[in-house]
Amino acid sequence: MKLFDSELKVMNVLWREGEATAKHVSDVLKASVGWNINTTYTILKRLIEKGAVERSEPGFRCRPLVDKASVQQQETDDLIDRVFDGSADKLFASLLSRKKLSPEEIEGLKRLVDELE
Is the pTM value of this prediction over 0.70? Predict the structure, then answer.
């Protein structure tokens, strides 16, 4: 399931909250992004149609049906395919060349690679 940036903003609220009214989601996004209530409701309806969110009554309660880890995995796979020619090592090299890592972070990455072998 492909989620667009605006949909991810809504999903992030629901992943944090677990379950919330559409009004609450709208209030959070109004404060953080500046969206009006109609924008949030439109995106929630689109997420419901996609099967990413379940709506229940009373009160237009919303609950995520897809977990964040699954979406992150799919988005990462898509990024690797689109931008790095399907090569995870090219993505990893790009990430590492962007930021100076502390010795602790480097050690943590080494442990992670060792666990994957």
Answer: yes
